[in-house]
Amino acid sequence: MIRHTVAFSLKHAAGSAEEKAFLDAALVLKAIPGVEKFEQLRQVSPKADYAFGFSMEFADQAAYDGYNVHPDHVAFVRDRWVPEVARFQEIDYVAL
After folding, report:
1. How is 6-25 classified by DSSP, letter by letter?
2. CA 96/CA 93 separation, integer angstroms
3. Domains of the chain, CATH where assigned
4. pTM listed for this prediction
5. Residue 6's beta-bridge partner residues?
6. Among 4, 20, 12, CA closest to 85
7. Strands 2-10 and 85-94: what pairing?
8. Is 50 helix (H, G, I), strand (E, B) or coil?
């Protein structure tokens, strides 16, 4: 199992219609084959300088690889992520 996570902040103002539109558009990711346990999260710790997180799981590397090249993921990254995300940190985990 691979847990794919990303913490990020948007270029949009907090609570704005643009912020909501981005988060709504991101829901397309959970429908991609192989994506399990997709979550959108709001970051609340004062120790971290990001506003949101996405978390999802994949059964194996093949499922993760399929997600990365899926046309819906590629389009989301190109059309929404790159122009709208101010900064991010991606971390992928496997169990010890």
Report:
1. EEEEESSPTT-HHHHHHHHH
2. 9
3. 2-94 (3.30.70.100)
4. 0.91
5. 54, 90
6. 12
7. antiparallel
8. coil
